[in-house]
Amino acid sequence: MKSPSLRTLLLIAALIGINVLSAFVFFRVDLTQEKRFTLSDATQMLLTDLPDDIHVDVYLTGDLPPGFKRLENAVRETLDEFQARAGKTVTYRFIDPDQITNPEEKNKLIDKLQQRGLLPTNLFANEAGKRTEKLVFPGAIVSYKGQETAALFLKGNKTASPEEQLNQSYEGVEFQLASTIRRLTQTAENRRRVGLLYDHTQVPPSRFADLLASVQQNYDLFFIDMSKPGPIAGLDVMLVPKPDKPFTEEEIFKIDQYVVNGGRALFFVDGQRVDSVSNEGTYAQPISLNLDDLFFRWGVRLNRDVVKDFYCAPIPLNVGNLGDKPNIQLLPWRFYPLLNNFGTSGNPIVRNLDAVLARFTSTLDTVRAPGIQKTPLLLTSPYTKVLKAPALISYNEARQQPDPKTYNEGTKIIGCLLEGRFQSLFANRILPGDPRANGFRPEGVASRVLICSDGDLIVNDVDYKRNAPYPLGFDRFTRNTFGNKDFALNAIDYLVDPAGVIAARARTITLRPLDKIKVDANRTGWQLLNLLGPLALVGLVGFIWQAVRHRKYGK
């Protein structure tokens, strides 16, 4: 029989061996059902290959309500996982602005955070019968080699309940941090290339300014000159923003072969044109871009119509006089649908996305296309009415009370993702003597295309007084910012690499709320159990231990 001292030495040696082994072998076990502590493969690769130190200052901390405290814990747990993967390369700290007692220093910090893009949120609560207000910054400042940028944690769909929106923010913490780190650490060698097909739109550059500036944060942006001979090549994504001039057959051939050869493309196109609107009315005229056959071969049809939706944004209208001044009120404008229906796919492009503001949008239909998987991403509400172009559009219509029974055409597709091996529109049409036959492919490698039937989705308004663009998705009448920019940027990320950092947006954390009625009815019992239960458990273990010792060593 081994002596107690030998057993102790063996135990100490085993512990030392485990510690030495842990220095060379890294593993962590995630036992949660949703794998909430498991980072995506792309995030792990990003953290493993960090070229220099990353520091994160988190400003979401302090005396917070339970929902925001849960979000703070999610940020802390995610950063712990980042550290476990990257080691000392990632450091972080939590800073509570309310702990700064010097008003001048506190205001200086708040100004700095707002300049970096970290905007505050007002929290209201009732404490001791008094209504209190607290300013919180639900985000972080990520620093790398002297550069600083903000990571925003309070994301999600604003039409959801506060609990659901905070849970959506919880699900997006990894993506927000990982995408911010990717943006800071990208080098010229690993930046992807986005091509802008700009020569087919008459929209001025200032109306695309916010989107293109945001794209350039993560990608190299190039302009595609379709007049140059040769194929479209060397791009990771081609962006086609609101074309209003027809494409020639040669240009369609270039786009066709670009996609067939594995190129990814993102189209924001209209089925009709609305030049201007008056009180009396104007007509939405059908527009032909010569893309119909190409889209049909890919699996969608762009319709010549315009959507009216009960779920819509308002516009200001003069409804009469108030004294000697006009009475301006915001009235629902059903030609400006708010797209808050993202289908059932759970695709990371639209998961937890805020509503998208559309203007004079057309509809898409899906058609049979062998080898192509079609995923509707943007859809109207079920209370939709579709007018065939040419269709009369008048501001005066906003003053009229619509008949809900006429908005009965159900949900309509506005944006559709196409994935698979695309077949060429020109298959069996290129003769051997045709100059285009050299290098022609009737069917190629797997690729991805996303088509949206509203070119205005990526057009921002402009503040002409300041000569500056508004953020994409910002409605200057309601002062709300919708999810247009997030949708476009997520779409580009997904088209470039669906297994990249964008995959972290697919994370799902299930809300498991307590039954408030049962909690209130049994509150006292649960409080006593939490208070006395641990004491009783410790006492029981002590009693059993003493009984065992008494039986073993007692005479």
TrEMBL record:
The keyword Zinc does not apply. It comes from the Bacteria. This is Gliding-associated putative ABC transporter substrate-binding component GldG. InterPro entries: ABC_transp_unknown, DUF7088, Motility-assoc_ABC-rel_GldG. It holds the Pfam family ABC_transp_aux. Keywords: Membrane, Transmembrane, Transmembrane helix. Residues 191-491 form the ABC-type uncharacterised transport system domain. The chain crosses the membrane at residues 526-548. Residues 33-143 form the DUF7088 domain.
